[in-house]
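Tutorial, part two.
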Amino acid sequence: MDSGQAPLALRVCGRRDKVKFYLDEDINPRVAEILSRLGCVATSTQDAGNRGADDEAQMAFAAHIGAAMVTRNRNDYLALTARLFDQGLPHHGIVFVPHSVPADDPAILAKLLHRLAASHPKGLAEYAVVFVRSPGK
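Running the prediction step on this input gives:
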């Protein structure tokens, strides 16, 4: 039965209070392009002009734009998240991408992030730490 509405994931991505994504430079910038076509708010480090910035600057930019950081760099960003929490500095969540998620096919990660956005219709909690699962797991 067609209700004339977009699927939930597409409706959620169009909401103002939804998850926004900021992709670290270790994430293919095409993921942001695909997510944007799906109606999500996603910005890559490259599009933001932040290529080469250190992790702290990347996280500060993500907080400034109200976005969750998406990265494969788990160890450094876990430590940074703990430090930001201790200092009471802004943090809109972090999404870790395991190396088992293929880097050479941006559509796979875009689909996983799109599902994540749909499962968090009000956005991620402050200081949330989320791990995306590899396809098929």
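The helical segments are 8-13, 30-37, 45-48, 55-65, 74-87, 106-119. In part three we will examine how such features are distributed along the chain.
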